[in-house]
Amino acid sequence: MNQTIQAIFEDGVFKPLYPITLKLAEGEKVRITIEKKENSDENLSLNQKYFKGLSEEYLDDVITHALEDSEKD
Fold this sequence. Notes:
Layout: E1 7-10, E2 13-16, H1 40-50, H2 56-72
Antiparallel strand pairs: 1-2
């Protein structure tokens, strides 16, 4: 099973913006593909405003499905 996540690059590491629902063992290796987004600060601000008040679990599901749909195009 795969999961697409959004992350921010800080202090030399990628930090997920939302909890990762994929079950991973400590030390497990994964493959990461990096896609740089334009205007990421603006998009993050809009997302935070639009999704305010929704649970993190619901948000993760919405984002995962949206990204999966965009990859099909």
